[in-house]
Design a protein that fits this description.
With 447 residues, this protein is mainly alpha-helical. 73% of the residues lie in helices and 1% in strands. A two-stranded antiparallel sheet has the order 1-2. Helix 8 (112-129) packs antiparallel against helix 20. The mean pLDDT is 83.
Amino acid sequence: METTARYEVRDAPRGLGGLLRNIGPGVVVSGSVVGSGELLVTTRMGAEVGFVFLWGVIVASVVKFFIQMELGRQCILHNTTTIQILDRVGGLRLRNTSWVAWLCSIGYFAVMPALIGILGAVAGLMITIFPGVDYEIWAVVAFVVLSLLLYRGLYEDLEKMVTGLVATFSLIVIGSVLVLQGTDYSISTSELASGFGFEMPAAGAFVALAVMGSVGATAVELFMYPYWVREKGYPDFVGPQQDTAEWQRRYRGWMRVLTTDALVCTGIALVITAAYYLLGASILKELNVLPQGMKVVEDVSLIFTESIGGWAYFLFMFGGFCTLFSTLLVFTASSGRIGVDFLRQVKVPSLDSEEVRRKLLRILQIAIPFLWLIGTMVWKGTPLELVLIGANANNLLLIPLAYGVLHLAMRTRENERMSLWGELGLLFTIWVIISFTVINFYLKGSH
């Protein structure tokens, strides 16, 4: 993607109000973060093992904050995309592109089975409300609506749409947890305490691995983040790197904005993920219901109808639609940009033209969800199976992505690099991801 400035250099805002008015990339990413992982994977984990894995859900939601921060920092410093950031990692190169950039780009698109599953879950949700219409027709309708919404391709439009969907969804879920305490499924202090015993349940190892890969800012959302940082204009506001006091002031100021943005993204993910897990562990586990099959969202709807009442069924279905569709929306917009960027990086002819790149972006924003549509038509299993497969691929992608980020973080100039606590947090994040992956693969193999 182009690196020419589209915004004027300016100082960062001061005060909490100014910071909050200038966030945005994290909100867009939250539209993907707060999606299938929370609605489908987290509730399934709660239904399968109860409260004991609450600690794992919390860790998975917050631990990747430091990777997100460092990717954002590298983007602001160099005004580059994720692929261009990873291309600076040394070692083997293919078509003048770093092996890490190749591996992470392939890994990004390897998560596509999850999106086929999400599109299938949207269609399954719609046939539970309108059973007279075929599943395939609803999948086509979702594809057409998705394509029309993204046709203009404007960042501001996307930010507004996703903000509305995420806000609506968040209020519904948080409200249901509060109401839950007045029902027979109320959560006791001892049940909450049991979720912090650091137990790794072997029976749910496959789903537990999917939890790390599908909640919080997952690998694909981290991959997306610099693209939306650039769309928002942070690197342009800071300006090209200079050894001046004015540049340092702008850099530190916009890093405060980016930190606030990433914290908001992490906070949204933590609250919604924990809420869904608690609802699954308290209601679905008690009812012995494991969400599965074509109507997986209808199974999950019990977390609302059993806590709030039967009248909340359609309220939940609306919230579920907001959740799943916002994931499709953000993933489609991001994948088009990443696809164009990767093809340009590996020197595909004619992509030096901005006009050609814009045309290709629009083509990919239709072609990619069309492939999901075809997958939905031919897949004979259930949507949740695909979501779990994609979530585990997402978890594996975290490892090379984290390596690339750590490599670059340690080579950033002293006055521009993260703090000591940030570096320790990044090292802890990588240790958690690798340990979590190895332990769950072992448990899955031995169970």
